[in-house]
Amino acid sequence: MTELRAQLRDFLLSWFGQHMPGSVFLWYDILVLLWIGVFGFVLHFVVRMVAKRFLKGRFFSPRNQHQENIAAVLGERLVKRLSYVLQGVVVVIQSHLWVGEGSTFLYVLELVANQWIILFALLSLFTLLDIFQAASDRRSNRAHFPLRGLIQTVKLSASVLTGILAISLLMGKSPLILLSGLGALSAVLLLVFKDPILGLVAGIQLSANNMLSVGDWLEMPKYGADGDVIDIALTTVKVRNWDKTITTIPTYALISDSFKNWRGMSESGGRRIKRSIHLEMNSVCFLNEQQLAELQKADLLSDYISRKLSAINKENTEKKTDMSVMLNGRRLTNVGTFRQYLVSLLKQHPHIHQGMTLIVRQLEPSSNGLPIQIYAFTNTTNWNHYEDIQSDIFDHILAIIPIFGLRAHESPTGNDIRLLTNHQ
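^ thats the sequence. predicted structure below, dont judge the formating
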C-alpha cells in the first residue's frame, strides 16, 4: 500500500512537471487539499444522512410538539458536530497518507485539523449535555438536584481544559506545563470565577438539604421575588412572579439570606386561613331568654346551648345563686356563643381540612375592637379556590353577626363626626 501511494505521488509530480507551470510541489499540495476537501464533504453528507435515519427519535420520546422540535434540533445538531469531528480525524489521516513526513504543509494541515477536532468535540459535548438537560426537563417527577447548574459547571470546566489543550498544541508544549503554571494564577482565577464557584457550592447545598427545586413557590421580599421558580442555573435562580414579571436572584443569595418556600403548604394539601373579625366591645353582653330561644333554633347551636344551659342551671341551683343580680352565677355571653357557632360552622364545612389545626380564638382587645380570629386550613391549595372559600366564610360571618347582638368594629371617619355635630 505504501509503495502504491509512492508510485501515485511520483506519477502526479511528474505529470505536474510536464504540464503545469511553477512548482510541482505546490500543485501537488493543491490537489491534496482538493482531494481531502471533496472526501470530507462526501463523508459529512453520508454520515448525516445515515445518522439522521438511525438516531431519529432515539434521544428521548417527546410528549408534545414543542418537545419533539427540541429533540429534533438537538439530535441534528449533535450529529452535525460529530461529523465535523470525524472530518478532522479524516483530514489528519489523509494528510499523513499523501503528504511527506516532516514537511511544513503537513505540519500546518495537522495543526489546523487538531484545532478543528478540539473545537467541535467541545461543541459536541455541549450538545450532549443539552440533550441530558432536555430529557430531565421532560420528566414530570424531576429530581431536586440542580442539573442545569451542574451542566453549566461541566461546560465551564470543559471550556477551560479545551482552551489549555488548544494553546499547548499551538505552542508544541505539554498541557501539564500550562496546568502547573495556573497555580500562580489561582487567586486571579478565584476572583474571575467567584460567582460560578459560589453558585456551584450553593446549588449543592440547596440540593443536599432539599431547600429549593424548580416549580416551588418562593417568596423573598429582599429581591422582590414572590412566585414560582422556573430555573435554577449555576449563578442565578429565576422566579416568575404572580404579576408575570421575572426576578433573577443570585444562587448563593439563597444560602446567605433567608427565603420562604411554600412547597410544604402545597405538599400538605391544605392552605391556612388566618384572619380576624373585629367586634365592638360595647356590644358584648349576656344572652337573655329571648335571644337564647332564638339561637337555640339554629342547627349548629341547638345541642351546644341545650348542653351549656343544663350545666349552668345545675351549677347555679347547687350553689343557690341569686340570679336576679347580673354579677352572680354563670351565664352565656353572645361573643362566647358566637365563637362556638364559628367552630361548629368550620367543623361541618366541606372545604375545611378537618385533619389540621382548627381554632376560633379571642385575641387581645385594642383600639380596633375585640379580634375574633379564625385559624384553620382549607382542603385545597389552589389559589382561586382558596380565596373563594375564605371569602364565602367571612361573607357569612359578617351577615350573621347582628343575630348575636354583636357589631363589627369600624373606625370613625370625618363623615361620622360631621353627622354627629349636625345632629347635636
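Residues 417-424 have pLDDT under 50 and may be disordered.
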